[in-house]
Amino acid sequence: MLLAACGEKPAEPPPAAAAPLAVSVVPYADLGFRPEREAPATVLGKNETRIAAETSARIVAIAVDSGDAVKAGQVLLRLDAKDAELALARAAAGLAQSAARLAQAEAQTARARSLREKNFISAEALTLRETELATTQADVQSARANRDSARRGVEKCTVTAPFNGIVRSRTGQVGELAAPGTPLLTLADTSDLQVVAQVQARDAEGLAGAEKVEFAAAGQTHALMPLRISGAISREARTVEARHRFSGAAPAPGTEGRLIWRDPRPHIPADYILRRNGRYGVFVLEGDKARFLELPQAQEGRPASADFPPEARIVMRGRHALQDAMTVRVEPAAAAK
Predict the structure, then answer these.
(1) Cα distance between residue 90 and residue 54, in whole Å
(2) pLDDT (tens digit, 9 = 90+) per residue, 26-37?
């Protein structure tokens, strides 16, 4: 009363400390899961070759069509070989003529050597015959090369398959003039079929460690064996190329489907990942504190791999109200439910 009369107020009690936030936790061993991943993929042969003519001639026959299976060495198309055959005949005649001159030069040189031994001709005369022989021998070699080149020209008029494969497309038509280098057929190799997929760079590590990888297409799945994953990342799509080989029978080249695998790394479900100060992570209980542990690879709305020990306690209920290092109170499991 005396203090009140003097105009002084009674001292206020100190504010009560905020009660620790109630949370529930779950062991990472119970929360973490291994997600299934997939990526678009295509079956490709080791080679996919555009078959073109090597000489200019009219197409007289095409023996295959799109979708046909062919064997190595099988005839694919024929070109008009009349001009090439005439060139071969001329080259063969030229070789025969050169060979006849060579036979004459050899006989004359042999006779000159015999006469020189008896001193019936001079050394200069023998040298002249030997020079004529060497020149004729060179002429024969040149004529033989011309003949072989002309023969090769005839062979080029028959286009054959370089490997076992399937005709993907046919652009050449009978009656057209084929020009050197112009594609007439596209042939896909079937001897070593591979699945080629463009995989997100962040998923490449999980694919490399996956126990089982499959290719799914047209309602069927095919077991695969790893071949290689490129280390080069596409600048535009941020993907890497992954190649796998079939363990058994393979679908046809060009088949499109999905590459499917299960990531071997434990992941945190997407709804447990929170954003604090521009970073993504989860809250883990350490003593009576909730610690925000950043997940560098995390993205909004996607599960993220986390290298936590199985016994790590992940904050479940109450996580949205937390900040790093807040004091919390763990509710019993029954109460948390």
Answers:
(1) 21
(2) 999 999 899 999
